[in-house]
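Dear U.,

Please find below the material for section 3 of the report. The protein was modelled together with zinc ion; I have listed the sequence and SMILES used, followed by the predicted complex structure.
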Amino acid sequence: MKRKICIECQLPIQGRTDKRFCDDFCRNSYNNRLNSYQNNITRNINTILRKNRRIIERQFDTNKIIKIKRNELLMEGYNFTYHTHTMHSKEGQSYIFVYNYGYLELENDYILLVSQDAKEK
Ligand SMILES: [Zn+2]
């Protein structure tokens, strides 16, 4: 019979062979480590999203309609990898949103920033 090994402590498991851990202690420490890893990923992405949102929001302090160079957002620390959702206009354009703010990529590296709040008014 093949001996199974605990995936936490690597020691042989006694008894039933469908077990993955030798005891509750090993199961708990394994799951805790997995959860904190997943919490870290979530927290890091949330931080990036909030920062992205703040960067767009700042542009609206002075203007209602904002056309900005992609580079200007990058220089402020904007991360184009992360967003919350996309919306498609009737004209077939894809707006990329970070919570209530979004943008549309225009020609020549320009970006049009939009606020959902303003749209609804
Ligand atoms: Zn173990």
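For the text of the report, you could mention the following: The chain has one domain: 24-120.

Regards,
Y.
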